[in-house]
Amino acid sequence: MAMVPKLNTMHFDKETPFQVVAPFEPMGDQPQAIEELAAGVENGQQAQVLLGATGTGKTYTIAKVIEKVQKPTLVIAHNKTLAAQLASEFKAFFPNNYVGYFVSYYDFYQPEAYIASTDTYIEKDASINDEIDELRHSATCSLFERHDVIIVASVSCIYGLGSPESYHEMVLSLHKGQTVDRDAILKKLVSIRYERNDVAFERGQFRVRGDVIEVFPAGYNNRAVRIELFGDEVDRIVEFDVVTGEVYGERTHSMIFPASHYVTEDEDLKIAMKDIEAEMEEQVKKFKAEGKLIEAQRIEQRTRYDLEMMQEMGYCSGIENYSRHLTHRKAGDAPYTLLDYFPEDFLIVMDESHVTLPQLHAMYAGDRSRKVSLVENGFRLPSAFDNRPLKFPEFEERFRQAVFVSATPGEYEREGADQIVEQVIRPTGLLDPRVEVRPVEGQIDDLMEEIRARAKRNERVLVTTLTKKMAEDLTEFFRANSIRVRYMHADVATIERMEIIRDLRLGEFDVLVGINLLREGLDLPEVSLVAILDADKEGFLRSETSLIQTIGRAARNAEGLVILYADTVTPSMRAAMDETERRRKIQDAYNKAHGIVPKTIIKDVREILEISKSEDTGHKAKGKPKKPAATAEPKQQPAVSDTPETPAETAPAALQLPEAPDAPQPDAVPVTLPETPETASETAPAQPEAAEQPEQAEPAETALSDTGADETAAVESAPEDAASAEPEQPIPDADEGAANAPQDAPEEDSTEEDAPEKKARADTIARTAQLSIAQIMAGLADTPAEDTPDAPPAEPDSTEEDTEEEPADTLTQKLGRGVTGMLRWLLLVVLFVLVIACGGVAWLYHNATPDMLPQIKATFDGQELAPTAYKWHVPIVGSWLRRTYAETLNPTPAELALPVSGASPDLVITPGGYSAQLTITDAAGESIYDGSATGFRSYRFAENGTYDAKLIVSTSGTPADEATVTGTETWQFRFTVSIKPSIQLATDSVAQGGVAAGRVGQTLGQDAPAIKTTLKNVGFVKAGSGWICYLPIPWNQKPGNIDLEVSADGYTETLSLSVRAGSFSYKDYSKTSQMAAPYIGEDDAPAAVSKLFATVDDKIQWSVGGFVQPFLDSFDTPLTYGMTEYAGRSYSERGTNYGYGGRTSTNVIIRPKNGKGSMIAPASGRVLLAKDLGGLYGNTLVIEHGAGLKSIFYGLASLDVKTGDTVKQGQLLGGCSKAVVAEMRIGTVPIDPLAVWRSRCDGLKLY
Description:
Layout: E1 6-7, H1 30-42, E2 47-52, H2 58-69, E3 73-76, H3 80-93, E4 98-102, E5 106-110, E6 113-115, E7 120-122, E8 125-128, H4 130-145, E9 149-153, H5 164-169, E10 172-175, H6 182-191, E11 195-196, E12 205-209, E13 212-216, E14 223-230, E15 233-241, E16 247-251, E17 253-256, H7 266-289, H8 293-313, H9 323-326, E18 347-351, H10 353-376, H11 392-397, E19 401-406, H12 411-416, E20 419-423, E21 434-438, H13 443-456, E22 460-464, H14 468-480, E23 485-488, H15 494-506, E24 511-514, E25 527-532, H16 544-551, E26 561-565, H17 571-594, H18 610-613, H19 677-683, H20 755-778, H21 811-847, E27 857-860, E28 863-864, E29 869-877, E30 881-888, E31 894-895, E32 907-910, E33 915-921, E34 927-932, E35 945-954, E36 966-977, E37 982-985, E38 989-991, E39 995-1001, E40 1010-1012, E41 1021-1023, E42 1026-1032, E43 1040-1048, E44 1051-1060, E45 1066-1069, H22 1087-1090, E46 1115-1119, E47 1124-1127, E48 1143-1144, E49 1148-1152, E50 1157-1160, E51 1165-1172, E52 1179-1186, E53 1189-1196, E54 1198-1199, E55 1206-1207, E56 1212-1216, E57 1220-1226, E58 1229-1231, ...
Parallel strand pairs: 1-16, 2-19, 2-20, 3-9, 3-18, 4-9, 11-12, 18-19, 21-26, 22-24, 22-25, 23-24, 25-26, 31-36, 38-44, 45-47
Antiparallel strand pairs: 5-8, 6-7, 10-17, 12-13, 13-14, 14-15, 15-16, 27-28, 27-32, 29-30, 29-36, 33-34, 33-35, 35-36, 37-39, 39-42, 40-43, 41-42, 43-44, 46-49, 47-48, 49-57, 50-56, 51-52, 51-55, 52-53, 53-57, 54-56, 57-58
Helix pairs in contact: 1-2, 3-15, 7-8, 16-17
């Protein structure tokens, strides 16, 4: 018989390395790109750019980099379609590793909103895609189970997901041989959001039949876990197919993760409910104080309803809005996201970064703008603001290393990258497609001719338009002209988009019309023509980046052609065509040098979401592959029945069927006493009588049917053409109990002709049983001796006349003898039971081995700890008999090999479900931390030094819990905290008029770092988790190297900054009156302004590179920063930027072209001064943006803000008539305003 394979999906002991499996090797410039990127990761470079042309195998390059660096990787794509394609490709490259897919699981999502102007409240409405939800759970489960994990995600990865610690701590962990109560398992499943459903078995549910529990884990696709108990012992754990019942294999250990990412322990939930109620009461008071009685009543009613739902059900609709309280975060703290589920040392790959990064930037603002109205009008508490996506700075803090992949990387990637690796050569020798510009007139007729020519060659065509309506109308027009065509835009569902892409490649249609989805990442080697309609309509969809990306869709076919339908060539078109031609020359030169003939890529068409159908070696068990879809049985819901679901003929071949015991002979059938209907129904399943159904033998019953072990049941005597099991029959009468008692196993040669013979034998047994009962009862009856037919005649006495006959026994004597006999039998039975029980207890005690003890693993700062002592109590018989295992392994604390290099080291205890207490003392013996392991996550060490720690892990069960192994395990260890602050510069070289920035991170204390330098500065200010100091470079700073000595936490490091000459212009005038006016020099600031230069706000108000030019309309700048004006110089002095009588500007004059305009805030900040100073200065405005950076405007026509106001970026400041002098300073040093507004100051981007 085939043996069931043993499965072990836990990869803690044996890790699987990343290994690329591909039928080809790196070619072209791929080897160099792989080596440079891998070296950059291994050398600790934070950001790298892979500038790869379309079709050059960027995905394969990244796969080889992952193989080299061996790090868990998060790949972020900008839409679900591209993410699904990437997931399938990575799965093909890594068949032996786990590749996950994590995107938003909503097919439709209508967020909660309130429109105050019309008093319209819109409830949240959503449609969840169950398959994507399963893939999300699968992804998070795998991150806890193994190291070789690649997750392909959309921007959904920065949205709140629930605490990873709570998610892992609430895992149900079961081992084979573990002693655990059945009810405890069921309670645990309910607490982690599984629902019991004994009829319809679906994902996130479980069902129970006797001692068999079947669980359909949330992260599984079509497999479930069956837990078979023998009493309170886990006897067997198997994985099986939920449709066919096929057993894939047997597990030694199973971890069942929660069915929801938002799981909370009862104790945490109670604390959260108190915090929610307190916040509600505070909000109600606030509304009442403001006179908003309706809002006060509304928020109280809605919140109390949610609290009642949480108390009764454990959750409520919109519970994610209370995530801050549920995870015990402070207001404003970043939420937990998928990034927190990754280990600390992981790699991020940002695919098509020029699109993905702007999405990440925009998520937070869009989410908050919707919730402001809900909070202000009493629909949500202010804590709903903390159910949000990550801000971009928070996202940056959560990764250490990233690779930005794009054919057109943006400014952020280029300026922040440690290195840019270019990959232009395609392994197939393909060149970038030819680009032609054709007139708009007659474009549709021209395009249809091109389409028909491609259709004859079995090639495909992409057409891009500007609007959805245009795409749909063009599709209908093509269809009316017998062209096989479909359209795709944002209104098409996610899964349907993937089907459309697959059908296009398969040739189901020839033309795909789209708008913005036919761009980045689509891998369509069958497409030989891309037509871009209205290419000269300059804008986002026809920008340089968009055009280059769209052109790249034809780069995977040797006959690739791109047609731009336009009447004029715009700058974006020219730039895109020039870049394409530059790449073609490089590629053509390489092909000629190596003798390569370009050929079209040949690539298999994979199934939709193939990753969800692939065999998973992670938390899903290895085993037999699923049956092909063509031969699979229709999916049916399993019925709850005591009979086996599958006959022996259809049982899976992998099962090892138990051998049937020998059938008992007729004379060996035990006598069965009559039973009441209740006991009969419990002990003997009803069967149909043979006389009622003479044409068909009775279906055999097996003892395994009650345990749900359908795979091990065999029905050998059932006829082959039996369609189904017989229906349940009425309960037999008392006199039929013996006849209808089930046999242990069917006879080997049983046939239909044996039925009357069986019936006769059963009747004989029944009569024998009744006769035996009658004889027993007769011994207690008062009947004469002669009534007994076999009694011998009494022998007469020799003296018959002298003696009398002995009197017969009285009823009391007969009863006495009967009772005595029964008591003897009862005593023997009791003794026999006691002997058996004692033997059983002794056997159980003997088998309670150390293998049953919990296997707990603890790591501190990534270093595994060795236990010093343990004491465990293994239950033998309930709570009154337990076997204790106790041992002291090492009485002295063990010293960790490596020093702790972070202020918040990780303490990880696996598996979850245990309570842990940690105590840490310093060298003086003073306790610096004494609390739970969970609370230690928020602890930070305040200073370096040597510390002793004691960790005690105990079970959460009480001694009265009969099924729980109780006790403790102790770790004592000593470690050294040695944290060196990180000190770095934004850039090593800065031009005159620019800004340098130094950042200090990983500091222990709260004191600000110090800096010594010849450059003027305002010192360090707090920025995120570190400190930052901005160093303004004056226009006249001498070029060369400047030393910066930075001190923090007693550590000093000297950095070198290179100052380079700026590119400043000059002008010559004949007369001084011709110079630009108004002119305000560096030292001409009025006293009301100059006294504000010392003001420094700690809070930085601008985002990364987040400045805009402050003038909305067209303007001229007759005077710019660093420009020198000369008047009346001699002829020999002209033509040079030096001489006498010159003056150098430290600001900018803005002069509206139409004589008027509006000034807006270039960034958020606080208004320090808004006042008419008269004379040369006029209406003056000073704004502090944080860290001493100020915007100063002189000569405004009007002021729309006042002193003390807080302004937002883009907010109207005032009007501008003739000219405005704009200046920016850090402290007292002016810097170039135009460079700041146009995001050319690298220093201002690091914070």
